[in-house]
Amino acid sequence: MTVPGRASGRLSARNRRKILCVSPVYARSFGTFEHAYGFRGSRAFMPPQGLLVIASALPENWDVRFVDENIARAHASDFVWADAVLVSGMHIQRRAIDDINHRAHSFGKATVLGGPSVSACPGQYPEFDYLHVGELGDATQAVVSALDENPRRPGRQVRFDTAERTPLQDFPVPAYHLAELERYFIGNVQFSSGCPYQCEFCDIPALYGRNPRLKTPEQVTKELDTMLAAGAIGAVYFVDDNFIGNRRAARELLEVLIDWQKARGYPFSFSCEATLNISKHTELLRLMREAYFTTIFCGIETPELDALHAMKKAHNAALPLYEAIATLNSYGFEIVSGIILGLDTDTEETPARILEFIKRSNIPMLTINLLQALPRTALYDRLAREHRIVEDERLESNVVFTRPYDEVVAGWKWLIAEAYEPSALYARYAHNVEHTYPNRLHPEFGSNRASFSNITYGLRILANIFLRVGGLSNYRKEFWNMALPLLRAGRIEDVIHIGLVGHHLIKFTREAVSGEQNASFYAPAERPRAAAA
Ligand code: SF4
Q1: Domain at 186-434: CATH code
Q2: Residues 6+ apart with CB under 8 A from 257
């Protein structure tokens, strides 16, 4: 079967329609940096890649309006304008997804829901008019055809499942021109989808497959050019589930990326998610450094070997952990790590052992969360069989832990408070200042990096950090102890990076310890994506 519209990357329709694409609000987390937005005028974390791809794939003769409610709420006039409202989101956005649906229905508009949450749990969204289950593919054309035929609300819910996925090579460039890229904290791009591993808690293999599917390197650079033209600057995150899921393809991409960066004066620094065993592939690391990758998110999860085996993450257990981290640092990559508490193998000593690991590894930023069982994972199935899934929004997780709930939550609070105590955090950054950042590529200041607007933008951020952290925060003494030696050495970029990210981590932790933020990946106040890779 051929997916209609495949050749052009666009779907087809006979009649003109007006589609409102709305991205739901997501909750704060360690990894979304809200407390740093004010320093640089950002309003949201990353552009919603999936929704922008769908917006771009819609028929050429359809008018598309895009609203990211993390930046500004959709107005009544947007709903009035639209023939239909299209929403895409993750589990963490469930309440916001339903809220958009209710508002659209109050204006009598048909609603369509796609994305990872509905694809994993279609039964959770009984009130949407159309459900799009699975990735971009034949279901997408089926939704378009239904709206083309009749844009009014159907009498009952209609569900379309993707049987044939559109190959990533046929994905259109996301509709970056509809998003205000300069208002996002970082940009993002996708090269591959899927991961060959099968960690027990992770839904990526079931949702996106174990054989990574790929875009071409030329597609990626075309997208980067489009982002550049649309005003993106700074850091770009590869949202791939595992950047080295196909190492040969990653190598081919990197060779093209290096040429692209050189030709344009290194406008972006890159980061990605990858399994820790990337440390064994030094040729890849060399190429990543040359392409100006600076940060790698690794799902280290736990330093406890029995826990890694129990969660089917043996590829981490087989590695000499501290050596692997030091190797990545030696290529200039700062590591960000996912950490999970609440595993069946946890003991009373686990939080202290993890803190010891944090200190010894000197990883500055870790997303430390309580275990949550996601639908379509082996973990969920096992816990359901054991009657250990509980749906209670007052709790921090849907897992019935083997240890007492209050002790697990108290251990989490103790651990994050210790890990993000300002002087402890700055000490880990100091290690990276000495042992990681100097190993990075230091691109020549080309036109894109040294433009007048970039320099004034950097100085504005620095002034904000001095004022809000160095002047107004109650950890200003620790800040200046960290910042003054760096300023004397002229390492302004390091002060900006540590000042921004550190401020978010310290403030977010204080909110979490006081109960304002949540402790698990997908409980109501947590990060939008699992600690993949
Ligand atoms: S946690 Fe990471 S390595 Fe494990 S299956 Fe998910 S994406 Fe792959």
Answers
A1: 3.20.20.70
A2: 217, 220, 221, 270, 291
